[in-house]
Amino acid sequence: MVNLILFGPPGSGKGTQAAKLVEKYNLLHISTGDLFRYEIKNKTELGLKAKSIIDKGELVPDEITVGMLRNKVEANPDVEGYIFDGFPRTVPQCEALNQLLSENSEEVTLLLELEVEDEEIVNRLLLRAETSGRADDANEDIIKNRLEVYKSETIPVSDFYDKLGKTIRVHGQGSIDQVFERLSNEIDSTILC
Ligand code: AMP
Predict the structure, then answer these.
(1) Helix (H, G, I), strand (E, B) or coil at 172
(2) Which superfamily does 2-184 belong to?
(3) Most buried of 18, 23, 129, 163 (most Cβ within 10 A)?
(4) What digits encode the pLDDT tens for the residues 68-108?
């Protein structure tokens, strides 16, 4: 199996690139942000709990997030691998993912980190708000909070996998196809050797 973590700040292009990568490598895309938005749309108990947290740009507690991710992974056992997008976002989530994968004798293959400057992030998210309808994209203060949370809670995830020799940093600016080519080259040189 190939288990990729697509990592980077909000608005770094993880969702866009994941959609292209799943086609090329035949993997299952799991975005915890999308899973939460589905729960919110369907007004489930989990969605109701998560909504106010997400709207403020904070992180949903690990226990809730990990439980939701585990359900999704366990519901899709017959796949060639996963692309995790927006997960893990804290070190305890890394540990939970390692535990979950190891139950099937699997592990994280690579963490691919998209590097994008803050100014570009704010511009991209404000533009995305015009079509996404996402409250957390529409307000500059909330975007800045998401970036703060990313730096304090989520960057340690990249360091966690770096210590295991699994983090690869990729320049995340340029055209969608350019970034896709950079990511594909890194994946190919890891899985083909
Ligand atoms: P995203 O679509 O990945 O930008 O996620 C949108 C929001 O969902 C985030 O700002 C968090 O509030 C929440 N969220 C998504 N993934 C996670 C996660 N792994 N841990 C905690 N909260 C998350």
Answers:
(1) coil
(2) P-loop containing nucleotide triphosphate hydrolases (3.40.50.300)
(3) 18
(4) 999 999 999 899 999 999 999 999 999 999 999 999 999 99
